[in-house]
Amino acid sequence: MKQTLGIVRYNFFGFFRNPKVIFTLFLEFVLSFLLTGRIMVVMDNYNTPVQAIEPFLWTFGDGTAVLLSSMLLLLLFSDLPKMTPVTPYQLIRTTKKKWLLGQFVYITFVTILYTCFMLLFTSVLCMKDSYPGNLWSDTAAMLGYSDLGKNLQVPSTVRVMESISPYGCMLQVFLLLFCYSLTLSFVILVGNLSKGKTKGMIAGLFYSIYGFLLDPNVLAAVLHKEKYEMYQINVLICWISPLNQAVYGKHNLGYDPLLPKLWQSCVFFLILVVILVILALRRMKKYPFEFLGEKS
Questions:
Q1: R_g (Cα) of the chain, nearest Å
Q2: Is 69 in contact with 177 (CB distance < 8 Å)?
Q3: Which of 276, 272, 292 minimizes the C-alpha distance to 284?
Q4: What is the reported pLDDT for 294?
Q5: Are 123 and 170 in contact (CB under 8 A)?
Q6: What is the pLDDT of residue 289?
Q7: How much is the pLDDT for 64?
Q8: What DSSP element (H or E) covers 55?
Q9: What is the pLDDT, as a whole number, of residue 270?
Q10: Less packed terminus of the chain by CB within 10 Å, N or C?
Q11: In terms of pTM, does the model score above 0.90?
Q12: Whole-angstrom Cα distance, residue 173 to residue 223?
């Protein structure tokens, strides 16, 4: 464990001075600003405040926002597995499995950090008219109990506000977003462990496009389903699409027993991560390390 943590520590050297990391965080802030704009319009026009973490909930409460935010990980993790000047020494003093375990821990920490920044950015952008109390705001009520939220495509729903408090909802949304981002990061790692690091980017894109293209209308046409059967299609997609598994509003909140529960989505992502870890360990045996033009 000490050797693994040492590998993780070296991977983080100069992390916040890395131009790629700085650029990714900048794009993350821009994305948060664009997505929270829908909520800020309501706050300005109706002069109503929001609870401190509500912008995060409504911003990343639909599949499109989750997909856009996770796509930035393709840039952040494009250089996986992480190579440092001491990597040859680490491989001599440890084993490939321990070194790869260090990559797993590094990816997990960076993904948590990335998700925390999304929560921070959305909260800071609306900080001027927000409060910390654990009560839903008037803005959330307007978005949920009227057609305003639907017209602005803000996923504020009555059943969410009636089933859980804002901070409890924040923990669950954070967990789902982290799980989806983590699986995408591991997909990139497994792809990069093949010959040529561009395969990781391609694998990550396919993983993202799979969830995006798994639209109910498209699937209904393929399966020849009628409009009255769309409910069955929606339920099916909520179970087989990783992107929909990451959307809080697509879960069983005490209203629909056929939709996945939160713990079932966590098990779904855990199974994906275990499969990706096994694939990474298998590919690690044939991974060609390159140092100063040499292979090892």
A1: 21
A2: yes
A3: 276
A4: 47
A5: no
A6: 65
A7: 81
A8: helix 54-59
A9: 94
A10: N
A11: no
A12: 31
